[in-house]
Amino acid sequence: MANAHAERVLDALGDPTRRAVFARLRGRARSVGEIAAGLDVSRPAVSQHLKVLRDARLVTARAEGTRRVYAVDPRGIEAARDWLDGFWDRALAAFKEAAEREASKEKGSK
Amino acid sequence: MRDDSHVESMDPNSVRKVVTVEAPQATAWRVFTEGMSTWWPLAQYKIGQANAVAAIVEPFAGGRWYERGEDGSTCDWGRVVAWEPPARLVLTWDIGADWKYDPGLGTELEIRFIAEGDRRTRVELEHRRLDRYGARRDEMREIFDKGGDWGRLLARFAEVAAHGS
């Protein structure tokens, strides 16, 4: 039940430089060059950090002409949020949904 | 759900949650117990090697509580201590801090279903005897309960970060 994905996400964001790379994607997608321009980090180092962020599904990459553009991937964030929300919060929220779905089905069949 | 869950417990060995569902008491009981597979987050909350396809609570005191994998294998989670439909269910939660079944662990879950009129039920959950986790109690309590302030901050940051991407 350990959430392996959430752990990868938290590990990835545990490095301050990588966190800065991730923060550069706040609000909009950017290329490696654009990301590096705002930071005191070489482009190869930025690429390496982006690889770790992609493995944790924190960022996505897509081709735009001849360059690659990186953006925030909500899946990594959702995994971390699930983990942070607390086990019983998440389980009970799911139970509430199922019980209410069942109740409205019963009501409809009467 | 989050709005319903501010019941704070001062007991370090227990986590309490409350949720109000728009469903009759009998329905809430049935969905929680025999319908557990329809809502339990099996993709993440399971301990076996196989993909889990069902979560089963045997309907009697002394019964098993377990998951079944797609290959037919089963992994125990705990036992039924009290089976009192449609009002009260007590289970042991025998999953260790390493997320493996430990029949001697004996943390306890009590779930109460309280009718609030014909169509609404207040469901109270308590996960107690967390002292059974020994040195890892606080860590486990945090997992069962919630992430705390830094968790909410990260979530808010993530929302801002993801917006417009």
Question: How would the blueprint of this fold be written?
Answer:
The complex is a heterodimer of chains A (110) and B (165).
Chain A: H1 4-13, H2 16-23, E1 30-31, H3 32-37, H4 43-55, E2 59-64, E3 67-72, H5 74-85, H6 87-109
Antiparallel strand pairs in A: 1-3, 2-3
Chain B: E1 15-21, H1 25-32, E2 52-57, E3 64-69, E4 74-84, E5 88-93, E6 107-115, E7 121-128, H2 137-144, H3 148-162
Structural commentary:
The complex is a heterodimer of chains A (110) and B (165). In chain A, 65% of the residues lie in helices and 13% in strands. Chain A is built from six helices and three strands, in the order ααβααββαα. Chain A has a three-stranded antiparallel beta sheet. Chain B has one domain (2-162): START domain (Alpha-D-Glucose-1,6-Bisphosphate, Chain A, domain 4). Chain B is globular. In chain B, strands 1-7-6-5-4-3-2 form a seven-stranded antiparallel beta sheet, with helices on one face. Chain B is of the alpha+beta class. At the A-B interface, α5 and α6 of A face β1, α1, β7 and α3 of B.
So how many helices of chain A? 6
Please work out how many helical segments of chain B DSSP would assign.
3
At the fourth level of CATH, the homologous superfamily of chain A is: Winged helix-like DNA-binding domain superfamily/Winged helix DNA-binding domain
Mean of all residue-level pLDDT scores of chain A? 88
Tell me the span between the first and last alpha carbons of chain B. 28 Å
Biggest β-sheet strands, sense, barrel of chain B: 7 strands, antiparallel
Query: Unreliable runs of chain B, pLDDT <50, ≥5 residues?
Result: 1-7, 148-154
Helix/sheet category of chain A: alpha+beta
Strand order of the largest sheet of chain B: 1-7-6-5-4-3-2
Within the largest sheet of chain A, what's the order of strands? 1-3-2
